[in-house]
Design brief:
Length: 223
């Protein structure tokens, strides 16, 4: 994920992989490589909740090179200081995490800092004005990965992408089968967990299915 809007050489909507809620780094490493070798992925977010910092650091040490060697940005969820120390490309912070401005101070201007904005135009405008590299809206669909307290609609993405330059990420229950309205509404990135790591034919098949669906939606909306 380069900073800013996708360039002309990049698709207008790209995949943003979020890791499964629990993982063992050595066992997960080949699955991550399989996913990243299966097609275009802009970014990987390591999301380990309620996990000791030493374990997160070890997971970064194993998984970060797999992403960065493939020019895929490696972002850590929730922990800006650890993200800096572990050589991550950035951090994702939510509304009850380290505030955006503090995360930016910790990581510096070259890092990617993304902010959860739920279903809120107001939160997104604040994050955008403060300098966030992307705003994340969700959940768009029911998700089994976490208890989602907010429900976002595709028109939020259309409103945002027509008015703002800051890229937007859509998250929550997104699959190859349901993603088309989010792509045509203007999502710059689709963030997914279960549609890739829970795909019955493996994560590579999950990435291929999502990229095919994104491509079909973009082709359909071009004409
Ligand atoms: C890309 C992306 N969008 C939203 C979230 C959710 O962040 P947050 O609200 O802080 O909740 P947790 O993920 O920390 O449980 C995210 N992680 N990534
Ligand atoms: C981490 C996360 N944040 C969400 C939000 O709405 O902010 S939904 C979510 C989980 C996304 O997982 P899946 O693709 O399996 O539904
Ligand atoms: Mg968080």
């Amino acid at each position: 994920m380069a900073k800013g809007k996708p360039t002309q050489a990049e698709p207008a909507c790209r995949l943003y992989l979020v890791t499964p809620p629990a993982l063992e780094p050595a066992a997960f490493a080949p699955l991550l490589a399989e996913a990243l070798d299966a097609g275009d992925v802009a970014c990987v977010q390591l999301r380990l909740k309620d996990c000791p910092e030493d374990d997160i650091r070890r997971a970064c040490d194993v998984l970060r090179p797999i992403a960065q060697e493939r020019d895929v940005a490696f972002i850590l969820n929730d922990h800006p200081r650890l993200a800096r120390e572990a050589g991550c490309d950035g951090v994702h912070v939510g509304q009850t995490d380290t505030p955006y401005r503090d995360a930016r101070k910790i990581l510096g201007n070259d890092a990617i800092v993304g902010v959860t904005c739920h279903d809120s135009r107001h939160l997104a405008m604040i994050a955008g004005e403060e300098g966030a590299d992307y705003v994340a809206f969700g959940a768009f669909f029911p998700t089994t990965t976490k208890t989602a307290e907010y429900k976002a609609e595709p028109e939020l993405l259309s409103w945002w992408s027509e008015l703002m330059e800051v890229p937007c990420v859509a998250i929550g229950g997104i699959t190859a089968e349901n993603c088309a309205p989010l792509v045509t509404a203007g999502a710059d990135f689709l963030a997914v967990v279960n549609a890739v790591w829970g795909h019955p034919q493996g994560p590579g098949a999950g990435v291929r299915a999502l990229n095919a669906a994104i491509g079909a939606a973009l082709a359909g909306s071009a004409g």
